[in-house]
Automatic annotation (TrEMBL):
Catalyzed reactions: ATP + H2O = ADP + phosphate + H(+)
Keywords of the record: ATP-binding, DNA damage, DNA recombination, DNA repair, Helicase, Hydrolase, Nucleotide-binding
Taxonomic lineage: Eukaryota, Metazoa, Ecdysozoa, Arthropoda, Chelicerata
EC top class, as a word: isomerase
PANTHER family according to UniProt: ATP-DEPENDENT DNA HELICASE, PTHR10492
The UniProt record lists the keyword Nucleotide-binding: yes
Species whose genome carries this gene: Araneus ventricosus (Orbweaver spider)
InterPro entries membership: DNA_helicase_pif1-like_DEAD, P-loop_NTPase
Ranges where the DNA helicase Pif1-like DEAD-box helicase domain occurs: 59-180
Cofactor requirements of the protein: Mg(2+)
Protein name (Swiss-Prot/TrEMBL): ATP-dependent DNA helicase
Length: 183
């Protein structure tokens, strides 16, 4: 985010976090912000995104390129028997984040919605338009076997997720198992 818009987005993110505790910015004496609830539907220039994707694809090694093309094929080739969920694994420094960025740029370069989430705030900052999984999916901060996500159907947040061609989730294994079982 820019220096100008960053504080507003930070407050909006904080407000989303406070909601899980039944609070909001006003209740904790912080200034409220008037941002649309579809915070993570960022506007991207498709030509710029495609240019970034093309530049990144040129830098991919053969294994990374295979992964990118395999996922893009699954997204854009409408075959019902094709896997739609992929798990990218590798040691630190092998270019997983670069693959994620390439996928995000490629999908956005086609004018489609691509959602970037991560299990930690630090990892989310490394992804273009990244947000935490807790924020996007309304996952409670404290999880147990009865926890459920607080994402309501028929909301603009739910519609954005349904409209997304891809959701890239970095460090998904770092998220508590109950976040996956009960949403």
């Amino acid at each position: 985010y820019s220096e100008e818009t960053g504080p507003f987005y930070a407050l909006a993110e904080l407000n989303e976090l406070l909601k899980s505790y039944g609070l909001n910015l006003r209740k904790v004496n912080l200034p409220s912000v008037d941002l649309q609830c579809d915070l993570f539907r960022l506007s991207y220039d498709a030509m710029e995104e495609q240019s970034k994707a093309n530049a990144n694809i040129e830098k991919l090694n053969s294994e990374q390129r295979y992964a990118v093309y395999k996922v893009l094929h699954a997204i854009y080739e409408y075959q019902t028997d094709m896997p739609k969920c992929f798990f990218l694994d590798g040691p630190a420094g092998t270019g997983k984040t670069f693959v994620y960025l390439t996928l995000l740029h490629a999908v956005r370069g086609k004018g489609d919605q691509a959602i970037a989430v991560a299990s930690t705030g630090i990892a989310a900052t490394l992804l273009s338009g990244g947000r935490t999984a807790h924020s996007i999916f309304k996952i409670p901060l404290t999880l147990d076997a009865t926890s459920t996500c607080n994402l309501k159907p028929n909301t603009s947040e739910a519609k954005i997720l349904l409209d997304a061609k891809v959701i890239v989730w970095d460090e998904a294994p770092m998220t508590h198992v109950h976040a996956f079982l009960h949403w």
